[in-house]
Amino acid sequence: MANVMTRLEPDTRAAARGLSDLTIRNLFIIPTIAFLIIFNVFPLLYSLWTSFTDFRASTTAPANWIGLENYRELLSDEFIWRNFTITAKYVLISVSGQVVVGFGLAMLLNRQIPMKGLITTLLLLPMMLSMAVVGLFWKLLYDPSFGIINYFLGLGKFEWLADPQVALYAVAIVDIWMWSPFVMLLSLAGLSAVPKHLYEAAEIDRASSLYTFFRITLPLVAPILMIAIIFRTMEAFKTFDHAYILSSQPTTELIAIRLYKMAFLEWQTGMSSAFAYIVLIMVVAITNIYVKYLNRAKAR
Amino acid sequence: MAEVKTTREVVMNRAAIAAVFVALIVMLTPIYWIASTAFKPRSLATTVPPTVFFEPTLTPFAKLFVRRSQMREPVDQETYDAAPWWEQLIYDDGESVVRNRRSGEITPSGYWDRYKNSLIVSIISTFLAVSMGTLTAYGFSRFKVKGENDWLFFILSTRMLPPVVVAIPMFLMYRTVGLHDTHLGLIILYTAFNLSFSVWIMKGFIDEIPREYEEAALVDGYTRLQAFWKIVLPEALTGIAATAVFCFIIAWNEYAFALMMTNRNAQTAPPYIPSQVGSGLPDWSVIAAGAFLFLLPVAIFTFLLRNHLLRGMSFGAIRK
């Protein structure tokens, strides 16, 4: 790292007085990098090692090197594949739900609405509040006998969380409720950046509103919407908090929940480290795509 | 600009306004339900049909902070009259405050300790993350760093990891060095978590401050550090405040690390509040009271932050 940090072209002559720019830069940047290496990279190297062992943190038995055995076992375990399938389904439902609701809200708000600022802020509240604590109260809302959802929708004693077929949708609905505001916020920014003269031109040409939407609005909002979608995909992939609190059904066992159970309830430390690494590689891949889009959006 | 509105447009606009209000009601109902349940007596919290209109009471808040037990027989009038108002509320609900047999002192519930832990951990980690983040952001903003984008990507990537992935090795390390279930342990984790966020956001804010300001100061004989301290920091103050509020909210809301890295001593409110809903019949009004006090600061902060939400939620990528 030191090698990277030593080259610097002084762009002012202030280097002559006080600390040199080079020193200041290193002083400002290196502690952060070091902190992140010590508390993020180093632990990950450590768990890379444990992923090749049969280590269990609940016993004092020494760890035995077993090579790729954990990875082999995980990748051939059909239950793990089920966790991945559940997660993929969950991500698909919740992200598409968020895009529809969020973008729809943004389209509605992109007009002259009284008290628009206040309404927008109020609509953003769900995403700011604790997912764990608010998620918990959806248990109360979903309750088959006294929950308000069944009451207002007239669903009688509909089982949201106890029915294994429905529970995943119930968890995804909470996610949609929480994070649609995020898609809305980004879409609003995209919509407000569409030049007004394009709409005026379309109106002069007597373009249909459908045509205007698909030929003007959507293409111009697409880059920012894409950022929202990738970011939400990444986050939905990692969902833990409200899913873990709301449901203990095997049909809602997302990857993060399986990983948590494997590591902290079953104490299969070595195996869970290997699992964590598989997840890690997937997350890094999605992050890469995300950052690429971010930079592209910034460049505009 | 004069606009001629057709009847169709007026109708469309009215329909949009109506739809927005319906959406607003639907989106806010869960939050309203938490807030209203916090002011309901226990008997009204889980009624069929749901109770929407009721006389608000502070009983759930009185119950929230003390340990209570169910009373077999009603309290005698003398004790009731001598009790403070909040204890009378608890008596009214058929429960009594658990007291220490010898000293007669009230036994507090676990809530306040968890709330205090949340405050300690969130405030300290926010302070650390924002101060380190601001310096690093300045470094990246003003100086040439070889492989700048790679470093920034590295910083961001540390934040994208699922908490469980980081928690497995951290748990083992913390256990070895005795940081498990300590405030310091959580503070370190939250600082690391927020540091990458604060570097990215602060870099955006600092990039917006014209370099000419500092260069003028350097010409006037300031050192680089003085220019940073006296010119850049005051200019970046709004950004720093917004970043700090964001970091505080993130740390305050964090659940997974707190669940895995703490048991009792350093446990924060997010894992504690759901643990109150065990088997049996939970007292939802008391849980709602706890949740209400926990969510309230964030709700207030959201209003303070409203102009910075877009930037914060997009890691500084979109500014408007």
From TrEMBL, chain B:
The chain crosses the membrane at residues 15-35, 119-140, 152-172, 184-206, 227-252, 284-305. Residues 115-305 form the ABC transmembrane type-1 domain. One of its GO terms (cellular component) is plasma membrane. Keywords: Cell membrane, Membrane, Transmembrane, Transmembrane helix, Transport. It is found in: Cell membrane. It is a multi-pass membrane protein. Gene3D superfamilies: MetI-like. One of its GO terms (biological process) is transmembrane transport. PROSITE patterns: ABC_TM1. Belongs to the binding-protein-dependent transport system permease family. This is Sugar ABC transporter permease. It comes from Marinibacterium profundimaris.
